[in-house]
Amino acid sequence: MEKDWLESYIEAKRSDFYQEEAPVDLWSKIEKKIPKEGKGSRMIFFPILLQVAAAVTLILCVGIGIGYYISGSTQINENPEIAEYLKSEPYFQQLVGHKLEAVSQMDGNTQSLKTEIDQLDARYQELKYELLHNPNANQDILIKSLIQNFQIRITLLEKIIQIKSAKNLQEDEQDRISI
Fold it and tell me: What is the pTM of this model?
């Protein structure tokens, strides 16, 4: 096995490494710079105090989070209309998703439509947040507004599908006539 260049260099210069000796009082100078035991125990106490403070903070945050979660879920359970709406929400979302997919399959240029839908979705998220987190809000009006938001999106997408379908039929008829 061949030696690499570093091993060869160290073996060639080994005698140069051992020529100088450390000063006799080197260790005493190093010991003078090390803090005494009284100061050292204080240094150990500070990190332990930080660890305890971090643990207490973590426990408090988890407790607060659980409290918010429980209070939010009890509010939903107290009002059956909110619970019923939240059960029907996936249906509406799926319906909007299918309609949006149908529109994008008909015509790939849906950027402006997507912008409009995103604006409606942003407003929907605001209303939903208000419904779930503000117990003083008029929940009936918020639920009606959420449903109306879905209806607007669905109606908009259905009209676009109708217009695109009519346009495609017209183009097909023109293609048949020109053939």
Answer: 0.50
